[in-house]
Amino acid sequence: MKIKKYVAKSMPEAMNEIRKELGADAVILNSKEIKTGGFLGLFQKKNIEVIAAIEHEPVVKKNIPLEKEKRKEIYDSIPKQQVEHEQVLNEINQLKKLLATQSFQSEHHYPPLFENMYKYFISQEIDEKLAKQLVDKLLERTNSEANLSEEQLTEMIGEEIEKNLEHLSFEGIAEDKQIIQFVGPTGVGKTTTLAKIAASTMLEQNKKIAFITTDTYRIAAIEQLKTYARILDVPVEVAYSIEDYKKALNKFNSYDYIFVDTAGRNFRDERYVNELKNMINYDNLKVETYLVLALTAKAQDIVDIYHQFKNLSIKKIVFTKMDETLTYGSILNMSAIKDIDIAYITNGQDVPDDLLKPTKQMISRLILSRYRDV
Length: 374
Prior knowledge:
3 domains; alpha/beta; 11 strands; 374 residues; Rossmann fold
């Protein structure tokens, strides 16, 4: 199936162009009135934009190069029934996507393939403005070419996603930091994440580390960190007050890294955030604070959590539970829009194995991982 867009002064003129190029068997998929030309929105002309399709491309006789002749021989060697079956399946898949696009028409009125890409971004919970920006950039690059293949479209949009992430370092623990604090709402896996990063630091960099927990609200949390401390053979201190916290820091002053676990509470409760602000130090130049977020949360909740915690001098984000969702738009939203580094992503419960160090290429692949399936 060949799909192409035509722009003409009137519908009869567009129909003549379609008939000349695609033949009398062409069908009209979509048509609308558009404005073109002009200056600063003035003197624009009204035109008709028509999306047309033909089941089989018109046969044009050409001198077939030697390589094409070889491909034709291979093609002809495939049983005709198998070829026809594959063609039918491809056409059905294209029609399904076009129909799905027509049932979801955004206010931007993109051509079908681009509308489908925009729809996919929204389903991945990518911010609407960012989704529009990405598709608009793609339209600029392709000049709205309607007969692009999905492979070409996917590759090009992947490049646009990566451009939005070029300014980020995706750096883990900075070399000049000593106190690594983990904050975030309840249930995101802060303690397990802390243990993964700590174990990775010990194994890969041979660093001397210690643990402090200020999470005295849950006995289970203290026991969990103590268990990890025993496994890794590192010291751990429980801080019930700001004085305990300062004493623990002094005690571990000679260590390369001090990993600090904090209580997970309702992030919408400002008292909790204020308690965190008063309990631990954010001004020390040796301190680095990570906000731990779960990818299973709604995109808007993730943005709300970030705004609630950003006064705690958040430098980097750790995303958890990648293996429990198929929606990854929040990674792009936070890094591209909020301009904050993603230090790590976790994808399971195993310590320290299920810990990933992201790159712009990895994030792009994640975002587009399901595009060909929709």
